[in-house]
Amino acid sequence: MNRSLFIHQLETNAAFDICIIGGGATGLGTALDAAARGLKVALFEQHDFAKGTSSRSTKLVHGGVRYLQQGNIKLVMEALRERGLLLKNAPHLVHNQKFVVPNYKWWEKPYYGIGLKIYDWMAGRLGLGPSQFLSKEETLQLIPALDPEGLNGGIIYHDGQFDDARLAISIAQTAAAQRAIILNYFPVTGLLKMQKKICGVWVKDSLTGKEYEVRSKVVINATGVFTDRLLKMDDPQHENIISPSQGIHLVVDKEFLLSDTAIMIPRTDDGRVLFAVPWHNKVVLGTTDTPVKEISDEPVPLEEEVDFILSHIGRYLAKDPKRLDIKSMFAGLRPLVKGKTKKTASLSRDHLIQVAESGLITITGGKWTTYRKMAEEVVDIAIEKNGLENKPSVTAGMKLSGYDQPVLPADITGESEKRLEQLVQYSVRTEMCMTVEDFLARRTRQLLLDTNAAIKAAPRVACILAEQFNKDKDWVQQQINNFNETAKKYLPTSNLPQQAGIKH
C-alpha cells in the first residue's frame, strides 16, 4: 500500500462505483468484496485503519457460545462457517485455540457440556476439534493456575484466535491488490447530493489539509459507533440507531495462566462470559459490557470495569492479579443496534443494513468473525439498488495478503536497534504507517501488550519515522507527546512511569 500513489489515483479518477466511509473490519471487508468483483472502490478512514473497535476485541474468532445460549442459532451457524473460512484464508493470523470451562458446581459439567456438544455439531466439517469432559486432575494439568479448591473438573472445547489489527491490515492490503484505493487519515467532511440523492463525498487529507471532491454511484456508511453521526450528516432529523456499549480488557503476564489453553467462565454476575486468553506471551482478561452515552476516539476503562474483571477472574485463579500487575488495559465501543431492552448485554450482536431515501447505505453492528459475510451482503444490496454490474462475491475462497509470509512481531521489546529500524521502514512503505501510535498500537501490538515498554520505545520509533517522512525535531517531539498522551489511558495511573514525561 502506497498512500501517495492512492492520492494520485484519487485525483485522476473521475468517479467510483462505491465509496466506503470507515476503515474498520466492516469497511475494509466491504472494500475487498467490492473490488474483487471488479468495481471501482475508494475507502476513507478518518484516523488509522482499525483505530477504534476493530483493534480492541477479545482476539477471538468464534461462533459465539453465548449466542447459542440466547437461542440465536442463525448467528452462531453463520459465525461458525466464517470462522472456518478465516482459518483457511488467513492462517498467518488465525489459529485454533483450546479453551477450558472449569466446573466448580456439580451441575456445570452436564449443562455446559451438552451446549458445547451442540456447538461442535453445528460447526460440522468446519469444526476445530471435539469438546471433551475433563477430570479435576486433567483440568489442572492443562491450566495449573486454576484454583484447585472446589474444582470438580472441566470441559475442553475449541475456537479461533487472531490478531485483530494485523488482520485489518491484511484485508486492506488484499483490497489494494484488487485495485481499491484505501486511505487513512482522510475524514469525510460532507456528502455530495444531486436532486436529494447522494452522489459522492467531500474528504480531507488530515496530514496536508487538502480537500477532495469524490464522485461515486454508491456511498456506504461503515463507521461503526460513529454511524449516527454520518446518518445525521445525511439527514439532521435522523433518529439514533446505535446504543454504544463499552468493553474493556486487561493484559497481564503469562504467569497468571501458566498455560497455552484459555479459560472461559460461562457466566459472570451480569450474565456475560469472561475469558482469560493467552496472546503473544501475555494473557488477555475480559470483557465487560457497560452502556455509554459519549462516543470517544480513545475510550478509557472505568474503575468499576477494572475492579469487575479483577474480582471475577480472581475467583478462579490460584494467584489473583492486582492492579499493579496490569501491563496494559484497553477499551473498545460496540456499535450495538438499539432494541427495546435497556441492557446492552441483551442487544443484538447481529448486523443491520439499511438504505436511506438519499441512497446512503448503512451497515452497522455485527462482529469481527462475520465481517466477510457482512461485506458480501452490503455489496449485494449496493449492486441491486444502483444497477451496478452484478458479479458474485469471490471472497469466501480468497487468501488474504501475507498468508504465506512471516508476520511482524507483536512485541518488539527484544528487537535490536537495526531490526526495529527495518520494522518501522517496512510498516511505512507497505502498510501506510504514519504515526508512532500506528506502529506501536496496530502494526505491532506493543501498546496493548506492555504499555510501559511502548512508552520507552516511542522516541526511537519517532526518530525513524522522521527519517522516512523527512520531518524535523519538532515533529519528533510532537509525535512523542501525542503518543504519551494516548498511552496514559492504557494503564492505571499508579502503573505509569513518571520519567516518561506523562503529566497526570
Provide a brief overview of the structure.
The chain has 504 residues and is α+β, with helices and mostly antiparallel strands. The protein has three domains: 178 residues, FAD/NAD(P)-binding domain; 169 residues, D-Amino Acid Oxidase, subunit A, domain 2 (D-Amino Acid Oxidase, Chain A, domain 2, 2-Layer Sandwich); 84 residues, Alpha-glycerophosphate oxidase, cap domain (Helicase, Ruva Protein, domain 3, Orthogonal Bundle). It contains 15 helices and 18 strands.
**Nearest-integer average pLDDT:** 93
The radius of gyration over CA amounts to 23 Å
Shape: globular
Q: Work out the number of β strands.
A: 18
Pairing-aware structural class of the strands and helices? alpha+beta
Biggest beta sheet summary = 10 strands, mixed
Q: CATH homologous superfamily of the largest domain - what is it?
A: FAD/NAD(P)-binding domain
Strand content: 15-25%
Just give the CATH class of the largest domain. Answer: Alpha Beta
Q: What's the total helix number?
A: 15
CATH architecture verdict of the largest domain:
3-Layer(bba) Sandwich
Instruction: Give the domain tally.
Output: 3
Give the N-to-C terminal Cα separation: 38 Å
What does this structure look like?
The chain is of the alpha+beta class and 504 residues long. It has helices at residues 3-12, 25-36, 65-69, 73-89, 108-123, 136-142, 164-177, 227-234, 303-314, 371-386, 417-431, 436-443, 446-449, 451-469, 473-487, and strands at 16-21, 41-44, 60-61, 94-103, 132-135, 153-162, 181-183, 188-194, 197-204, 211-221, 242-253, 262-265, 274-279, 282-286, 290-291, 328-337, 351-355, 361-365. It has 3 domains: 3-53 and 166-241 and 347-397, FAD/NAD(P)-binding domain, CATH 3.50.50.60; 92-162 and 243-340, D-Amino Acid Oxidase, subunit A, domain 2 (D-Amino Acid Oxidase, Chain A, domain 2, 2-Layer Sandwich), CATH 3.30.9.10; 417-500, Alpha-glycerophosphate oxidase, cap domain (Helicase, Ruva Protein, domain 3, Orthogonal Bundle), CATH 1.10.8.870. It contains 15 helices and 18 strands. Strands 3, 4, 5, 6, 11, 12, 13, 14, 15 and 16 form a 10-stranded mixed sheet that branches. Strands 1, 2, 7, 8, 9, 10, 17 and 18 form an 8-stranded mixed sheet that branches. Strand 1 (16-21), helix 2 (25-36) and strand 2 (41-44) form a beta-alpha-beta unit. Helix 2 crosses helix 10 (371-386) and helix 11 (417-431) crosses helix 14. The chain is globular, with a radius of gyration of 23 Å. The two termini are 38 Å apart.
